[in-house]
Design brief:
This protein has about 200 residues and is α+β, with helices and mostly antiparallel strands. The protein folds into two domains: about 80 residues, no CATH class; about 110 residues, no CATH class. It has six helices and six strands; from the N terminus they run βαββαβααααββ. The strands form two sheets. Strands 2-3-1-4 form a four-stranded antiparallel β-sheet. A hairpin with a 2-residue loop joins β5 and β6. The longest helix is centred in the C-terminal third of the chain and has 27 residues. The protein is globular, with a radius of gyration of 21 Å. The two termini are about 40 Å apart.
């Protein structure tokens, strides 16, 4: 949780901090109180340093207390994050790219350039949605969360086109020193492993 009392930061600083925290998936719990169930401490630290607010806010870790009959944390998610908009983005992504995957699964041939175009659009579109996702644990998400299906679709479609796309990149692009080097081993670990 990030707490910033009104007396410690200006209205401009509050607006900037709010924008950055919301971009990282934090939700507004109450005025001056933002929370995230799985925030990245290094990213949060970088935001606070960049905005010069490290010494003006409080960053704390919170958890449910055992033995209390309290509202389920799931209700807090519904009240503080607009998951409906995010879910709509994932559904739209799915509706755009599922027909492409079905087409490729029917063994329609594609050129290296087409594979590159598909991969580029696929990842660009997925990042536009997933970068706004706070990536909550599954138990905090609504049943049938479309983000899981969108990720699986992205993974499957990427696996269908990455080889041809890489051949296009290696054939058409050059660096300052000529031909590009082959993809690093980390490339092949994407989406749980590319074969």
């Amino acid at each position: 949780m990030v707490l910033f009392p009104r007396a410690t930061i200006t209205a401009h600083e509050r607006a900037e901090l709010r924008r950055e925290l919301e971009w990282e998936g934090f939700g507004l719990i109450a005025p001056g109180v933002f929370g995230h169930p799985a925030a990245s401490a290094p990213v949060l630290n970088e935001i606070l340093k960049e905005l010069k607010l490290s010494d003006k806010v409080f960053v704390i870790s919170a958890k449910d207390l055992d033995g209390f009959a309290v509202r389920p944390i799931r209700e807090l998610v519904d009240e503080c994050w607009t998951l409906q908009e995010l879910a709509a983005g994932y559904r739209k992504y799915f509706s755009h790219f599922d027909p492409v995957l079905k087409l490729l699964q029917s063994h329609v041939a594609m050129t290296q350039e087409q594979a590159f175009q598909i991969r580029t659009l696929l990842i660009h579109s997925f990042r536009r949605v997933t970068l706004r996702d706070p990536h909550f644990p599954a138990e905090m998400l609504p049943e049938g969360w479309p983000g899981h299906a969108a990720y699986a679709l992205c993974r499957d479609l990427y696996r269908h086109c990455y080889k041809q796309a890489e051949l296009h990149v290696m054939d058409k692009l050059e660096g300052a020193e000529g031909k590009l080097p082959k993809a690093a081993p980390a490339f092949y670990r994407r989406f749980g492993g590319l074969t």
